[in-house]
UniProtKB/TrEMBL annotation:
One of its GO terms (molecular function) is glycerate kinase activity. Transmembrane segments: none annotated. This is Glycerate kinase I. Gene3D superfamilies: Glycerate kinase, domain 1, Glycerate kinase, domain 2. Belongs to the glycerate kinase type-1 family.
Amino acid sequence: MKVLLAPGGLWPEPAGVPLAGPGRGLPASSVAACLERGWHAVRPDDSLTLVPMADGGPGSAQVIAPERIASREAIQGQGPLGQVREVDLVRLGPGPARSAAQRPGEGRTWFLDAARLLAPPLDPDESAQEARHGSTYGLGQVIGTALGRTSPSDTLVVGLSRSAVHDGGAGALDALGGAPAAMDLLVGRSLGLALADGIALGGMSGAGAALAEITSLSPAQAQELDRRACAAATEAVSAAATPRPSFGGQQRLLPVVSALDDAQMPSLSAANSRGTGHLSTTTWGTGAAGGGAMALRALGAWARPGARVMAEILGLSDTVLGQDMVVTASGELYDVLADGVVDVVGDLAASQALPAVLVCGRCATTRGELAGAGISSVYSLQEPHAIEPWDAGGPDVLEARLTDMGGRLARTWSR
């Protein structure tokens, strides 16, 4: 039997925000390895293909297979409170199907794991400190460094996710020299955002309103921070929309020519019709990186759901061909997010009429919603009414439980 293991990471998700970090949960590569070990212990003759999945969030660069990587570099940047952090900059080699099919003018594709720089801490009090005093300055730093490594014809994809920092991207713009200098830096370049979280910056259900849930801030404190962040982000949009003499009085457009397999990026005409005039604090995806996503989009960056981008980078649509079933995983599932890991993997399985099984730390969504996402069956590590958290005991205990789960899946599904 041929089985594709394409799990996401298993992380705790208070208020629906994955908190990836040491001591809690497991990255996608470890989840896949545990399931494989348990499955092969029961059915050693089955053929398992491991494609750990990511969504543009922290550590997404770690799931890219070594044979797909032409180069990898660790770039240092300033963390939310000034601490030094490292993020991965990966230059992708062409996929097997594209080695002889590169389009004229098509440059290389790079992935910057910038979400690691601003990942929210597990401690709500630490998150509150980052919300009050943190800056996205380091985001601008690492993007500027990455652009210095790339050529004008290349595509730089930046992974971003939710953050406790909430400055509207003002710090990132400062690090790039301000909006005018940043626009000059990005002239003629293809800069894309792979967003792990499509939340808007402002609004009743925006990233600012959610600060009270992932930090120890009061709702009133979160509202005031959100007001400032939305004002800063709106100012960035206005500055970017001002015609620049260096652009001949026209708004600069980024050429979108990408080496991503089967990528469906916005075209120049689509970018022109969209423009920054339609970008607001309630626009999809503007809340990633504390509003850094909105500032970068004001400069002309395109944005797509991170799981879709990572599926293309990983060649998931090709890998699913010829399989007999698909297994994915998620830490906590309260609903199936459109274009999240579960939705993307389930869609690909359904396109080939394959059963798709979900392994979940805790699942609180309906079978109907799972079926709509292409998921045939779900296996939870936590019972519905259990008091003890599904990740109790730490990573070692969780690895053992996932290994047992792999064996259980093999006994149930292997034929």
